[in-house]
């Protein structure tokens, strides 16, 4: 399937907006966890296994806080 030039520009715009939202979420997570800027956002440059481990290390404490708040 080949995209037209117009469709390709739409996809590029969607992707850029998506990345902006991800960056905002990453920044908020780093602030919430009180960790240095870049600790989470650098995950994209890591090998797959390390990226998964680091993502888990970010998500786990946030989930624990949510569970504790609901108990």
Task: List the defining traits of the structure above.
71 residues, mainly alpha, elongated
Description:
The model has no long low-confidence stretch (mean pLDDT 82). The chain is elongated, with a radius of gyration of 16 Å. It has 71 residues and is mainly alpha-helical.
Give a brief rundown of this model:
With 71 residues, this protein is an all-alpha fold.
Q: Poorly predicted ranges (pLDDT <50, ≥5 residues)?
A: none
Largest sheet: none
User: How many extended strands?
Assistant: 0
- Give the termini distance in whole angstroms: 50 Å
Rounded average pLDDT: 82
Strand share of the residues?
under 5%
* Total of DSSP H or I helical runs spanning 4+ residues: 2
What's the gyration radius in Å? 16 Å
- The computed structural class is mainly alpha
Fraction of residues in helix: over 70%
**Given the C-alpha coordinates, what overall shape results?**
elongated
State the order of secondary-structure elements, H for helix, E for strand: HH
Outline the secondary-structure elements.
Layout lengths: L4 H29 L14 H23 L1
């Amino acid at each position: 399937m080949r995209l037209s030039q117009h469709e390709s520009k739409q996809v590029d715009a969607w992707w850029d907006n998506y990345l902006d939202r991800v960056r905002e979420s990453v920044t908020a997570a780093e602030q919430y966890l009180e960790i240095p800027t870049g600790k989470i956002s650098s995950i994209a440059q890591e090998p797959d296994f390390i990226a998964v481990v680091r993502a888990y290390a970010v998500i786990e404490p946030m989930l624990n806080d949510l569970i504790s708040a609901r108990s």
